[in-house]
């Protein structure tokens, strides 16, 4: 039976941390695409807090975390909260990104191994590329957790069913399309993806399947498929799409950057908040404060978000609970190896509840 970690839906703040090795925290805070560096060293506590279902993790704990890219607003927000929680636990940690480069990520994992980490968490740039080095970590007695990919050489994988997540985004978008468009007046749809990353390609394919399965017959047409993992990239590509397809009104995407960028492009096209036509909308996943604020405002192009866990703090806490369960020796063998997360929609009807839990 595949195990599930339940929570609600997602939001974020900023920050992340950089260092080579596992000897302490060094921060690399990412805001709107820029970064700065500052150093701070944290000593591991003798007694960690109880993690809930698992035994309390005690003694010195070293954790190495390598993230795909901390310029991504969602990852920056969640990792900033995770860092706060690890400090509270007294964990000695290194949190670093690989700038979406698998060779860099392999080198980072090798550094984690040589520096004697107890646990390595990898958010892979390319899961296949890091399988071997993660196997080397396990051979060295280090526990390994993958976030996002169902890898083999890990203690446990904490993952989304990205096809199902995409399908939920497509279904949510279809509800918007069915409300505002007909076969006589079909929606022009732009799909914002990042197909070079396997899980995001799965997510994009799920979005397109969700549209096909849930839209009324003949009431939409996909007129553009563009890249847009980061907000500035999405905005530029949506502006190009609008030049070629000025009537394109529905934008569905694989992450926060797709929403933030396309919303900004549409605000500029229509002259600002309060001027967006009711049949123009953006629906994506991830949740950052900027996304929630745009949704709550009610007069921008953001119409719905499909997210997971709750706030950035909720997601970070769920991740830390996974760390503690793994470190405490919980059994993740066999069909318990993949731990699936749960998704759900955020709309104007529940956005204030999500914001209140931040």
Q: If you had to describe this structure to a student in words, what would you say it looks like?
A:
- By secondary structure, the chain is α/β, with parallel strands linked by helices.
- It has 2 domains: 3-159 and 312-341, Response regulator (Rossmann fold); 162-286, Rossmann fold (3-Layer(aba) Sandwich).
- The protein is 39% helix and 22% strand.
- The chain is built from 10 helices and 15 strands.
- The strands form 3 sheets. Strands 1-14-8-7-6-4-5 form a 7-stranded parallel β-sheet, with helices on both faces. The protein has a 6-stranded mixed β-sheet with strand order 10-9-11-12-13-15, sandwiched between helices.
- α7 links the parallel β11 and β12 (281-285).
- α1 (73-89) crosses α9, α2 packs parallel to α3 (127-139) and α6 crosses α7 (256-270).
- The chain is elongated and about 65 Å long.
How many helices? The count is 10
Tell me the span between the first and last alpha carbons: 32 Å
How many β-strand stretches?
Answer: 15
Question: Biggest sheet, in brief?
Answer: 7 strands, parallel
Order of H and E elements: EEEEHEHEHEEHEHEHEHEHEHEEH
Overall, the morphology is elongated
Domain count: the total is 2
Reported by name, the CATH topology of the largest domain is Rossmann fold
Content-based structural category = alpha/beta
Q: How large is the radius of gyration?
A: 20 Å
Strand order of the largest sheet: 1-14-8-7-6-4-5
Beta-strand proportion: 15-25%
Q: Provide the residue-averaged pLDDT.
A: 86
Proportion of residues in helical segments: 25-40%
CATH architecture of the largest domain: 3-Layer(aba) Sandwich
């Amino acid at each position: 039976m595949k195990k599930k970690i339940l929570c609600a839906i997602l939001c974020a703040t900023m920050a992340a941390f950089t260092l080579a090795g596992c000897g302490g925290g060094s921060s690399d805070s990412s805001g709107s695409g820029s970064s700065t560096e500052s150093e701070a060293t944290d000593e591991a506590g003798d007694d960690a807090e109880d993690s809930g279902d698992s035994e309390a993790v005690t003694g010195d704990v070293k954790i190495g975390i390598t993230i795909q890219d901390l310029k991504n607003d969602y990852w920056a927000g969640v990792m900033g909260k995770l860092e706060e929680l690890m400090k509270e636990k007294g964990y000695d940690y290194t949190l670093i990104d690989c700038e979406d480069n698998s060779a860099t990520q392999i080198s980072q994992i090798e550094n984690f191994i040589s520096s004697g980490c107890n646990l390595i968490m990898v958010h892979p740039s390319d899961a296949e590329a890091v399988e071997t080095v993660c196997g080397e970590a396990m051979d060295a007695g280090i526990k390994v957790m993958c976030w996002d990919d169902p890898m083999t050489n890990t203690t446990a994988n904490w993952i989304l069913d990205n096809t199902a997540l995409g399908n939920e985004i497509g279904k949510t978008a279809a509800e918007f399309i069915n409300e505002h468009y007909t076969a006589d007046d079909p929606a022009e749809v732009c799909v914002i993806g990042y197909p070079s990353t396997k899980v995001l390609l799965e997510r994009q394919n799920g979005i397109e399947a969700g549209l096909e399965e849930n839209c009324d017959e003949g009431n939409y047409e996909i007129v553009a498929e563009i890249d847009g993992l980061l907000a500035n990239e999405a905005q530029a590509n949506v502006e190009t799409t609008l030049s070629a397809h000025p009537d394109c009104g529905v934008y569905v995407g694989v992450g926060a950057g797709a929403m933030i960028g396309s919303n900004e492009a549409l605000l500029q096209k229509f002259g600002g908040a309060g001027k967006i036509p009711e049949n123009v909308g953006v629906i994506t996943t991830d949740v950052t404060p900027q996304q929630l604020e745009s949704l709550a405002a009610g007069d921008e192009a953001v119409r719905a978000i499909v997210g997971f866990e709750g706030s950035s703090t909720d997601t970070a806490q769920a991740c830390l609970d996974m760390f503690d369960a793994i470190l405490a020796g919980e059994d993740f063998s066999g069909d318990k190896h993949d731990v699936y997360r749960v998704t759900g929609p955020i709309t104007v009807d529940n956005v204030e509840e999500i914001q209140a839990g931040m």
